[in-house]
Each structure stands twice: as C-alpha cells, then as structure tokens.
Input
Amino acid sequence: MIYVCQTIIQVKVEAFTRSKAIPSDDPCNNFPVLVRVMVEPRHSEEMPCAGVDVVAVLDASGGMQGEKLERLKEAVMVVIDKLRAEDRLSIVSFNTYANRLTRLTYMTDHGRDIARLKINKLVAGGRGDITAALREGAEILWWREPESSCRVGCILFLSDCENYEIFETEIRPEFPVHTFGLGIDHNPKVMKYIADMTSGTYSFVNQAISRIKDAFVLFITSLTSVAVMSIKINLTTNEGITISSIESGGYVNNVKSNDRSGTIYIHDIYTSEWKDFIVYLRVGEGKKELMTIGGQYLSYNTVKHLANTDVHVLRPHHDCVQGELTIHRDVAARLMHIRLEEGISTMLEQGPSRIRLQQLWDGIIHSEEGRGAPEDTLSALSVDVTEMMRDIENPKEYRKSGMPYTLSWLSSHKWQRATVKGTR
Output
C-alpha cells in the first residue's frame, strides 16, 4: 500500500554562542554553545509517505474495572480516529496474560471498524502482567517486514499501573514506550521508569474525558508529523578548540578521544519540535573560529546531508568589549532548564522538599542565566515549579499531584518533547 505526501521536510541547524565575544587574552574552559536542530516543512511535489506503526498496550486487569476501563476505551477511540490511512495500529490488552487483539492494521475505514470492535469488547479482570504485555508489543514491532524500517514504531501504554515488580524486570529498549497514567491512583514512578528505559515519555491524565481526549489528540497529532529520522549531528572544532562536554538530555552523544569532534544522535523529530543542545568548549587564547556543525538524516527513506554551519566569536580587547558579553537569551533559557532539571533530580534522590526546591528556583532566577532568559521562559518555569510543590509536605497527596507533575516534567525535559501534565 503506497501513500503520497506533498511536503518535503528539511533539517535546519542553528548555533548560538553564550555571548558574541570572548576577551582576546582570556582562555575560556567552559564556553557554552547552543546547537539547535529543527525541521522546516516545504510544499513540494508528491512523494512517498511512510506512516507510523503504533502498538496500543492496554491494561485490562481487575483494577481497571468500571469507569477507568470506559475512560481507557474512549482514549483509544481518539487514537483510532486520529491515525491516518497510511498509519497502522495493533492492539494488545493484558491482565493475567498478554492478548494480541489485532495485528498491525492500516487505519482505513475498514481497519478502524475492526479496531473499534475489539476495543468495545474489552472487559477487565485478573492480575496485570506488564512485562509480558510490553514484550508482546515489542515483538510486534520487531518482526515487521523489512520495508517498515523507514516507519516510526512505538508503543502506547495505558494503565493505572501499581506494579513495583517492573523495577526488577528487564524491559526491551528497542522501541519507545510512551506511558500514560490514568487516574490519580496510578504509580508515577513505575510509569516514568518504563518510559525512561525505552526512550519514551511519561504523561498522566485524570478521569475527565475532555482532558484524556486532549492528551491523545496532542500525542497522535505530533507522532504522525514525523518525517525525519536517524539524525546525526557532527561537531568538529578548529585548532586550539576542544569539546569539554555535551548536554543532550536523553539523546546519545559521543566525544572522540582527542576532544576535537563529537556526535549527537536523534531518533526522530516532530515537525512542531526543535531540539536544543549545549556544547561546552575550551577556547584557546585569541581563537575566533570555534567549530563546524554538519551531519545527515533520513527523510522518507532517503539519506540527506546537512549544510555545514560555522560557529565563531569576536575576540576584542577588554576595553572594547562593551555589550558583547551579554548572554544570549536562548542560551540562557536552555542553561536554566538544565540547572533546574539537575537540581530537581538531586532533590528527589534526597527526598522531596519545598524548602530545597524554592531555594533552587530562587538561585536560578537570580543567576546570570535567569536575568538573561526571556520573560516567557521565566513565567512558564515558575508555573512548573509551583505545580511541582503541590502538596509536597503531604506525602499521600503529593503522590497524586506534585510527584506525577514533577516526573512528567523531567520526562519532557529529557526528550524536549511535550508531555501531558496536570489533572485539572
């Protein structure tokens, strides 16, 4: 079955140095450069369109009886309705055993009817075997026909999961599992653990159907916009410049042994997304030309190469610097996100604390990055921090509100990908 698209997607790379200049006689050991990777859709001639493969793994254990199961069914109906004819869906339910209800099926009118019939017949009961269900989902994607290599494949996991045994279980990491916790009594730590082990994201929704529908419309709309995969960003420094480290969140990066070159790998990018990475450089005295950024990517099963982007700074004398050392607003925003993520992760290891979280946030907003970041970044992060503090002094309530919000925020930050957070 062949489908066509009328849009060509091209990858664009931009770079922003921390400041326009480094004083000429100052060596700099940790100079941040923001590398931004984004996609640019361009209207063009018709061309093959790959589509996506989604395996919906659905909790049908005893804990899902009643209203929860009805909410789950309505959520999956949204997925069925939003997938395109070139997309495929497989449905796996699980209780005591994993049950493959449908094979990967194109979401044509006939395919949708089959999927809806299977969902409407779901009943809940028994004990949920998460491990078997996730293994079944991965097997479905693993044994696809060879020509499916250009199709995005992922698992959509819906559950009110409470099972701690998953922490002792090996989870197959080949395909991302995007987890959605249903209801205020799901276990956010379990859901984020599954997502983390598979390079997926963790979201949570309550039992308000409008909120659930919004969550899955966002997810499927984004997923079906993927047209670029296997992005490889190559970093090559000039003489006198070396890479000290790369901050890439969950994305794999590698710095070669001579510290003169590095690579960042991105599995896929939605057309509505961009990815920001911080590359820290050691800059020798007087050096202006810092590095060159290139790479390649896969679009509609065709390998394409990125045009090289050169990165440089000014090297004026101290008395000529003036405003050239002002931090770039986008660099400041990314550095704020990184610092907040690192601080929250440390706080959670020590135990949630309103005082520590407030001290962390106060330190960030009064830092040079905080003063240089855009107002909308400060405002959005301030809202996030407030939500993370919700009921933090009441462990039982915090598990229902602040904890899932915090873990979903961390998941979103790790992959720079939207997650659904909040229950209101």
Notes: The domain at 15-37+228-319 is CATH 2.60.40.3670 (Immunoglobulin-like).
